[in-house]
Amino acid sequence: MEEINFEEAMKKLEQITAELEKGDLSLDEAVKKFEEGIKLSKECNKILEDSEKRINILINNDGNITEENFLPKEG
Description:
Layout lengths: L5 H17 L4 H28 L1 E6 L2 E6 L6
């Protein structure tokens, strides 16, 4: 799959969802759209995970601003 940004992938996912919900596709076309949607969903997940790793949080510590890597809360 060609490289796609998050917004483009989400827009394409919305289009695929609308096409599938409409119900006008043949079984073969619906399966192909579903497969494409799964690939796009995985790509969106990867983009979000990569972005999360790059986020830095500025924390005010006793009047000093420090930069720390973002660590998502577990739970």
